[in-house]
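Appendix B. One record, verbatim.
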Amino acid sequence: MQHSSGVEAVSAVHTVVARQLLQTAAPTMSKSDEIYSYFEYLPDRSLAIVALALYLAYAFAIALIMVVKRRQWFMTIVVITALCEAAGYICRLAFLSKPVYGGYVAMQCFLIISPTFLALANYITVGKLMRIAGNARVGFFRPSWVYRFFFASDLLCLGIQAAGAGVSTSSNDNEPESPAGKPLLLVGLAGQLIFFGIFAIFVIFMHSSKKYGLRGRRDLRIPFWCLYLTTALLFIRNTYRVIEFAQGWHGYLATTERYFYIFDCLMVVLTFVVYAALHSSIFLPTAPSFASLTADVSRQQASDSMELSKV
C-alpha cells in the first residue's frame, strides 16, 4: 500500500501537467511537437539506450556476484532497483517512438521512485555492522530497528507526496501546479532528504564512536567506504530532485536534459558501480550467528561439567 502511494504521487502530479498540455495541443501536432510538449526539449534516444544497457548490465552482475555466488539475499533489492531503472528507460524509449500519456507516467514513476529503495541496502548493511561490532543495542538503536526506521521514514515521505499530489489533482485544470499541493510535495521530498542526512550522520557516528569499537578496524575500511560513497551519491541525486520539484515541471532543471543525466542517471549508475565493486557483502567478515553462539556455550558447559565430575 505504501509503495502504491508513491506511484500515485508521481502519477497524480503528471496527470495535472499532461492534462493541461493535451488541452492546449493542436489536433494536427506532429510527433516531435507532441514529445516536446511533455519535456520542453527533445530527449536524446542514444543516451537512453546507453543508460538502459548500463542498468541491465549491473543488474546481471550484482545478481550473479552478490545473490547467486555470495547468497546475500538482501542484495536482491539492488537488483530489482536496477531492473526498475531499466524499465524506466524502456518506457522513455517507447514514449519517443509513440508518445502516449500512460508511457510518460510509467517512465516518471520508475525513474523517480526506484532509487528510494536503493537506500534500503545501506540501512541493512548498517544493521549488519552493528551486529559485527558486538553491540546489539547502543542507546535507542537495535540492528533490526535501523533499516526499519529509516525505510519507514522513506515510506512516510512518499505518503506526504501522495497527499500533495491529491491536492494538486483537485485543483482547477488551468492551474497545473496547485499552490496548496506543491508545498506538500516539497515537504515530502525535503523530508526524505533530511532523513537520509540523519542516516549519514548516524553512519559517521557509528564508525567513529568508541562504543561500537569499529574505528581503526582495517577489515571494515572498504565496507564503510562503500557506505560513504553510495550515501553521498544518493544524497546528491535526492537534492537534485528536491530542487527540480521546487522549480516546477516547467523550471530550468526539469526542462534541461543534461542535468537529468548528470545528477540523476549518473549518480545512480555510479552507486551501482560502487555496489558491484566495494559492497560489504563481499568484504564484511561474517558475524557469528545465534546458533553458533549457543553451540559454543553448550560445549563450554559440557566441558565444565566433565571437569567437575573428575573432581
